[in-house]
Design goal:
By secondary structure, the protein is an alpha/beta fold. The chain contains 17 helices and 13 strands. Helix 1 runs parallel beside helix 2 and helix 12 crosses helix 15.
Length: about 425
C-alpha cells in the first residue's frame, strides 16, 4: 500500500500537528510501509520537522515554488509581529488574509492534481484545516484517490477561526474522517454531520525510557513541574505561573520549567518577577529533537498542561511515556488521555484548582508513584507505536476498501479505541 501524508506547510518551531505528521511518517517508514510526505509549501531547510523527516528517510515533496514559500513565510512573520504588538488586530488580519491564502492555494490545484495522478498512491491522509488542505483533498478526490482527513483538534474551535466553515465543504469528498480520542470522535460526529465515515486514530510517541513515576524527590528538596507547548494564552501558561506564585507561599521548594516559545514569553518573565518567584522559574527554550524532549521530561516530577482548548497534546503523551503524572485541564480529549488514574484534571483557567492539584502531588509521593506508573501504562496501551501503527495501517485498509483482510481484523484488536 502506498501512503502519502499531506499538510499545507510545516508550522514550526512548536507545532503539535507537525509533530504528529513526523511521528506518523517515521513510524510507518520503520514498519516497512511505502510512505512519503507532500506539502503545499516547503518550509526552510533548517526546520526541525523537515530535518527529522529526512533523518527517517521519508521522502518529502512540495507543490508551490520556493518564491511562494518565501513570500508566505515573510507574511506570517509580519502577521506574528502584529499579533504580538497589537493583539486586537488578530480577527481583522485573519479576515483580510484568508481570501489571499485561499487564492494562492487554489492556484496550485492543477499542480497538486498532476502530482497525485503521477504518484498514484492508494490513500492520501490530510491534516490541518486550511486552504492548502482543501486543495489537496479536492485534487486527491478528482484523481480518484481515497482520502482521509484527520481532525487534530476540535471542529470549529477555537472561536474566531472563520475558515473552518468553508473547509467543511470538502469533507464529503473524504472516504473517512478520523478523530483523536473517543470524546473528540463524539464531537466530530455531532458537528461534522456531512462526513461519510468517522473513526479514531490517536497520536503516538516513541517510548523514551522505562520511567514509571518512581523517581524520589531531589536531595535538595526541590520539586519541579514542567510545561511544554506554545507560550500563548490558549495554552494557559500564565495560569500556571499564577498557581506557582500561590503554591510557593506554602511550599517554598517548588519550581516550574517551561519549554517552548510564543507571544506570552516576555509577559511571563515579567510576571514571575512581580510575584516574587523569579528564582522558582526556569525557561528552557525550544527543544528540537526527541532526545531533548526526553531529557526535559525526565527532569520533571509532574507535567502540567493548563490549556483552555486542546485536542490530545503531544507533550502529554511524551510526559506519560516517561512515567510522569499529569495535571491538565479537562478539555478536548485530555480526559480520555489520562483517565482516572494517570493524573489530575482541573477546570481551565481556575488558578485555585491548579494550585491545589500542584500542592497535592508535591506532598504525596505515594500518589505520584501510582499516577506515574498508570501514566506509563496508559502510554503503552494507547499511544505507543506498537499499538498505533497497526491501527493506522488497519484504518488505511478500510479507507481503500480492503477491510476484510485477515491482518486488518487482527490489527483492529490491538487498540482499545479501535471499535469506536
Amino acid at each position: 500500500m502506498k501512503i502519502i501524508l499531506c499538510k499545507s506547510h510545516l508550522d514550526g518551531p512548536i507545532s503539535g500537528a507537525d509533530e504528529t505528521l513526523v511521528t506518523y511518517a517515521s513510524q510507518l517508514q520503520r514498519a516497512g510501509a511505502s510512505v512519503s510526505v507532500l506539502l503545499m509549501y516547503l518550509h526552510a531547510e533548517e526546520d526541525q520537522y523537515y530535518q527529522r523527516l529526512l533523518e527517517s528517510d521519508v521522502r518529502v515533496s512540495w507543490i508551490a515554488s520556493n518564491l511562494t514559500r518565501t513570500s508566505l513565510g515573510t507574511g506570517r512573520r509580519i502577521a506574528a509581529r502584529m499579533f504580538l504588538n497589537f493583539p486586537g488586530s488578530k480577527p481583522l488580519l485573519r479576515r483580510r488574509t484568508q481570501p489571499v491564502l485561499t487564492a494562492v492555494a487554489n492556484h496550485y490545484y492543477a499542480e497538486c492534481l498532476a502530482f497525485l495522478e503521477r504518484e498514484k498512491p492508494d490513500v492520501v491522509h490530510v491534516m490541518t484545516p486550511n486552504a492548502g488542505a482543501s486543495v489537496m483533498i479536492r485534487a486527491a478526490h478528482d484523481a480518484g484517490i481515497r482520502v482521509m482527513y484527520q481532525e487534530l483538534g476540535i471542529p470549529y474551535h477555537p472561536p474566531g477561526f472563520d475558515y473552518y466553515e468553508e473547509f467543511t465543504s470538502v469533507l464529503p469528498l473524504c472516504a473517512q474522517v478520523a478523530a483523536l480520542s473517543p470524546r473528540l470522535f463524539a464531537d466530530c460526529r455531532d458537528k461534522l454531520t456531512s462526513c461519510k465515515s468517522l473513526s479514531i486514530l490517536p497520536i503516538m510517541s516513541q517510548g523514551f525510557s522505562n520511567g514509571n513515576g518512581h523517581a524520589p524527590r531531589a536531595a535538595d528538596g526541590k520539586f519541579t513541574f514542567g510545561y511544554a507547548a506554545r507560550i500563548e494564552k490558549l495554552k494557559g501558561p500564565m495560569v500556571l505561573i499564577e498557581a506557582l506564585g500561590r503554591a510557593c507561599r506554602e511550599e517554598p521548594n517548588l519550581f516550574v520549567k517551561i519549554a517552548g516559545d510564543g507571544s506570552q514569553r516576555q509577559e511571563i518573565a515579567a510576571r514571575v518577577k512581580a510575584l516574587g518567584v523569579a528564582n522558582h522559574y526556569r525557561y528552557h527554550g525550544v527543544y528540537t529533537h526527541p532526545e531533548e524532549c526526553r531529557a526535559f521530561m525526565e527532569s520533571l516530577d509532574v507535567f502540567v498542561m493548563p490549556s483552555f482548548t486542546e485536542g490530545t497534546p503531544n507533550s502529554v503523551v511524551e510526559a506519560m511515556a516517561c512515567g510522569k503524572p499529569v495535571i491538565a485541564s479537562a478539555v478536548g480529549g485530555i480526559p480520555d488521555m489520562i483517565g482516572h488514574d494517570a493524573g489530575l484534571l482541573v477546570t481551565p483557567g481556575d488558578t485555585s484548582e491548579l494550585t491545589a492539584a500542584m500542592l497535592r502531588l508535591a506532598r504525596d509521593s505515594k500518589l505520584r508513584q501510582q499516577m506515574g506508573a498508570a501514566a506509563r501504562d496508559r502510554y503503552r496501551r494507547l499511544f505507543s507505536p506498537h499499538v498505533v501503527t497497526p491501527l493506522m495501517l488497519d484504518t488505511y485498509r478500510r479507507v481503500v476498501g480492503n477491510s476484510h483482510a485477515p491482518e486488518a481484523r487482527e490489527c483492529s484488536q490491538l487498540h482499545p479505541w479501535a471499535r469506536a
